[in-house]
Amino acid sequence: MDKKVIIIGGGPAGLTAGYLLSKKGILVEVLEADIEYLGGISKTFKYKDFLFDIGGHRFFSKSKEINDLWDELLPDDIIECPRFTRIYYKNKFYAYPIKPLDAFFKLGPIESLLCVLSYLKAKISPTKNPKTFEDWITNNFGHRLFSIFFKTYTEKVWGMSCKEISADWAAQRIKGLSLGTAIFNALFPKKKPKDSKNIIKTLIDRYKYPRKGPGMMWDAAGEKIKEMGGKIHMGCFVHQLTYDAKKKQWNVSYKDKSGTVHTLEGTHVISSAPLREMVHSIKPSLTSISAADKLKYRDFLIVSLIIKEREALPDNWIYIHDPSVKVGRMQNFKAWSPELVPDPSFCCYGMEYFCFEGDGLWSSKDSDLIELAKQEIEKLGLARKSDIVDGCVVRQPKAYPVYDDAYQTHVDVIRKDLEENCPRFYVVGRNGMHKYNNQDHAMMTAMLTVENILADKNQYDVWKVNQDASYHEEGEADGEESNENFRMVPKKAI
């Protein structure tokens, strides 16, 4: 029987799968909810010829397969960017990753001494089997540095106490980096460990980036899929999936932007849609619905301000560790690529706010959010309100799957249910697997899924991608090294 794959979601994972399957001559149809943009959270939004990234997406991976695919999809439009990021804390800017000497002079000798003593205390008497974000960070940096450089920003992102956030989040995002590692790299910045796999990717200083934003990559992938005979349907919301065991095919029903219902038939389904909603869409109902209902998401909005540039900021990002403002992070789009800003006399700053869909921030009028962003950027001293000439707001639902203390239990229940009752159904990507992964991790889950479909068996375990809590920036800077969970190695060998 000829294969036909229905792909739910036109983000990095879905489009990677669609492109690779199309190259093998397999018919694919992609269903994307967004009316205009491909790329999911990695899309590039356009406002009056200003382009901006929804959340910031550096193209950096320790996987050779991922780097090769980026080059294949966009061979002539990738630039190399310097990475410069700082933390704003008590009216001062601190280097990020933390540089001990920089922190020492800005915190002052007394505060620095207290931080060192706190770190030594954590090393002497660490929390055994840390289960929360606070425990994990304290073990690696000490409680005082946790309070200064981690607590405020993290609680803005998640809208919950660091005592409620799983240690999985910390381990995944900053594995391998501790105060000791930071001190070593500050004192010996050019010296590399003998084992290149042990280089901490958070210390990289350059990365790749499409010259007109990450959406440029995924627009190219979409065009190539269509050139090879695949179809992409925009503005489509999947509301029901049923499996016909006799025909060995899936029936996927969706509503287009006019509300008309359509049904596609396919031998396989790949989903990068939010796992909670996808479980509800499968009929007859799965037993794991109650587990799915307990999964949570954090939403996100960005207020992009167009500003007359007086003094160019070098930062790609500035993390705002100040509880007196609601903004969590600021992006400087011109620092990512000059082509994102059409007029060199202007700059464009993205003020990032983390929220829950339906709460006060999310439901605010765009004009009120723009005014809030203007007030806060001036309060932080990053721009003058009088220099701001325009702004716009973009909301991104379900930007982050929440890592609370029980999320993994719920995901395990759903995974088992899908594997036992949904043949030829695959989940990939960040929201599809309810797994906070980055673009390259999401792409790798799609790559391995494609191999499983081509082989007609699950020879790769996609859940092992990033299972060892690899930091989203950990790896060899030249992209030539791949660790165990990034090699294209069959399941039995992993």
How is this structure best described in words?
Helices cover 34% and strands 24% of the residues. By secondary structure, it is α/β, with parallel strands linked by helices. A hairpin with an 8-residue loop joins strand 16 and strand 17. The chain has helices at residues 12-23, 64-73, 100-107, 109-124, 133-141, 143-149, 151-158, 167-174, 179-187, 215-227, 275-281, 289-293, 333-336, 360-363, 366-379, 407-421, 429-432, 439-455, and strands spanning 4-8, 27-32, 44-47, 50-53, 78-82, 85-89, 92-96, 206-210, 231-234, 237-244, 249-255, 261-266, 268-271, 282-283, 297-308, 317-320, 329-332, 346-355, 388-401, 425-427. The radius of gyration is 23 Å and the shape is globular. A 7-stranded mixed sheet has the order 7-6-16-17-18-15-19. The longest helix has 17 residues, at 439-455. Helix 5 crosses helix 6 (143-149). The model is unreliable at 192-203 and 468-487 (pLDDT under 50). It folds into 3 domains: 4-40 and 64-73 and 211-293 and 404-493, FAD/NAD(P)-binding domain; 95-203, no CATH class; 297-401, Alpha-Beta Complex (Polyamine Oxidase, Chain A, domain 2).
